[in-house]
Amino acid sequence: MAYFLISVSNRKNLELCKEHKLAGFTNSINGFWTFVEIEEGDYISFLYGARAHNLYRVVRKMALKNAEKYGPWEPITFRSGYTYYFPFRLQLSLVREFDEPMVRQEFAYVAENLLLRGGYRKTHFQADEITFYQVSQMGKSVDANETNGELYPTEELFVPKITFDIRRKAPPEVFPFREVILQSLIRKFLEGTPEVLGNILSRLEIDDDPKEFEVLGEKALPEGHVDIFIKKRHPRGVSPKIVVEVKKGAARKEDIEQLARYMDELGNECAGGVLIAKSFSRRLPNPPQDMLFLSYRFEDVDKGELYTYEELLDRFALVFP
Question: How far is CA 195 from CA 16, 189, 261, 263, 315, in A?
Answer without folding.
Answer: 43, 11, 28, 24, 17
